[in-house]
Amino acid sequence: MINKKGNLKIQLKYFLLITFIICAFCGNAQIVNLTKDSLIFYVEENWKFANKSKEDLSQLNYDDSKLPTLDFNNKFNDLKKAKYEGAGWFRFKFRNDSTLVDKALALAFDFDGASEIYLDGKILKKYGEIKGKENSEYYNPKNVPEVFFLRDTGIHVFAIKVLEFKDDDEENYIAFELKIGNSDDLIENKNSNNIGFTFIINFIGVIFLTLGIIHLFFFLYYRSIISNLFFSLFMFGLATILGIFFYSYISNDPRKLSTMSEVLLYLIPAISIFFTAFIHYIFFEKTKIWLITLFGLTLINYIILILEIPEVEFTFFILTVGSLLHGLIRIIISLYRKQKGAWIIGAGILFSILFSFFILVIGIIGGINIDSNTLMGQLFVFGLALSIMSIPLSMSIYQAWSFSNLNKDLSKQLVQVKALSEKTIQQEQEKKQILENQKAELEIKVEERTFQLKEEKKKSDDLLLNILPEEVAEELKQKGAAEAQLVEEVTVIFTDFKGFTAMAELLSPKDLVHDIHECFSEFDRIMSKYGIEKIKTIGDAYMAAGGLPTPNMTHAQDVVNAALDIVAFIEAGKALKIAKGLPYFEIRIGVHTGPVVAGIVGIKKFAYDIWGDTVNTASRMESSGEIGKVNISETTYALVKDNYLCNYRGEIEAKGKGKVKMYFVEKNTK
To answer: Does the residue 53 lie in any domain?
Structure first.
């Protein structure tokens, strides 16, 4: 394994892997014997290095005796031995024996950059495209096994041409990992690692995300416990980090991995602050100066990050480690003071922090190279998972303990309240009885008065609705006045009885009013049937309008249907009157469509009315019509012609309007 100088590379399998080890010296290297019983896994020794990007060093017979030999196990050697410009070459010679001839072998390669792998001068695999630093296509295969075969015994050579992906401020030191082994073993190992990593990272991530959401709702519903907010943010941060680890594990693009590293650089200080604030608000809620100080330092750190000041790594380390140490000290103080619940949550947090520091120290001193297939590796993975889960687990236990104590306190308080109540219950019963009697009497009176008020209100509302449209009546009740409104298109109907004056002479006033009431009542029912608003009656004239106060698209058809029903009703009444030898009514009906202004005026005896030329024109349609006919204007005809059989009358002279095109509606065709 070769790593970058001064750079920290984090992977879930190792959690913290700091191993960049090289050794450079000139001379001939020992050739490794590759047999079935001594199969190489991590190839770390006997590498030849050359900074010759324009030469072909892949051939088996290339003389590499003068090239420096690198021993990657020697981490204290001069890193500049492997420095290069453009692309670099690595060669590894080995001797194959008969036990591995025609056996399925595999190599697993991990490298952030573009690479070409050759076996005895023939290209075995190509990852990305080497086209110079700016134009290369970078691709990391992430240890996906590539199968190959050795067809004969003797000496063979692996030659690797690499161009590493680097940020602008990093020096070009080669960093890659190569494993060689049995193909079945490497493939099985890779598959098991993928399955295990995916399950663990997603399982823990979902737990963290769920805890974050739950505690966020705890805070939203009960904001006095601020620790829930910081714990929620802390859990969201950890879930985000796990998401970044998972994305880094499956992504093959080094550019995106570099972006993820920058995201972590911004995220980790904030998570440290959330963690420390969470600890603070559990055990030291009254002191806030230090918390403001930490947030201020975090802000300064982000400013340094944005401005790309060289000291950013130092401030990042100081802030992050300082915040964690501060939280650790707070827990120790709480344990020393024997604060309630400190041992529960403190145990989990202390275990997590101490395990993290242990990994950090081991990684810095000697590096970590744990095989998950061994007992030591499995113990390490178990300890790592336990350290990650210890904080939310201890927090859950703390919450359960806290709720349990709260329930116990409430139970004690209930016992005390019950005892106090028993002492005063005799005195209170008499007062309670008096109050209940008074309350019952008062409730009866209130119910009676409320019923009366409801009845009176219903009467007034019904009366108002009988005078005004519902929308206008509601506006009048709420505002005390109703504004007039312009309705762009309504259909107005006028009716008038023929020979009404002569009828008045033949009938008594009582009979005349009875007949008019009977006709107008039926007109009202017809208007209600088609949703038409009655406007008013003037003597023997009846006026209504469709499409208001609420506009609709069927007003013209509704009004014409109503007019035809009125004609049918009058004709039926006429037949009955003739049969009895009584005077009868005959009617003219006029209909016109157009804009009107609708509303109420005045402050007494409210009446809903409409104004405009449309009203006048509708009146002219009635006066220019004929007995028993529905006379409509050209405007109305255009809206209903597809639904009714209409006869064109021609241009008829109308008073004050000149010649107007008119139509008689004969019948409904649908």
So the answer is: yes
Question: Nearest-CA neighbor of 541 among 506, 577, 492, 614?
Answer: 492
Total H helices, total E strands in the chain: 14, 19
**392/584: higher pLDDT:** 584
Residue 515 in any domain: the answer is yes
Q: Nearest-CA neighbor of 382 among 372, 392, 395? A: 372
pTM, rounded to two decimals: 0.50
Of 189, 209, 238, the residue that ends a domain is 189
**Residue-wise pLDDT tens digits, 408-424:** 777 788 888 787 777 77
Token pair, residue 47, equals 């590498």
Query: Distance between CA 591 and CA 519 in Å, rounded?
Result: 19
Please identify, among 148, 172, 189, the residue that sits at the C-terminal boundary of a domain: 189
Is residue 466 in a domain?
no
Whether residues 356 and 503 fall in one domain:
no
Give the pairing type, strands 47-50 and 88-96: antiparallel
**Among candidates 117, 166, 98, 157, which has minimal Cα distance to 138?**
166
In this structure, the answer to whether residues 402 and 518 fall within a common structural domain is no
| Burial (CB count within 10 angstroms: exposed 0-12, middle 13-18, buried 19+), residue 577 | middle
Instruction: For 248-264, give the DSSP string.
Output: HHH---HHHHHHHHHHH
**Residues with Cβ < 8 Å from 332, sequence gap 6 or more?**
346
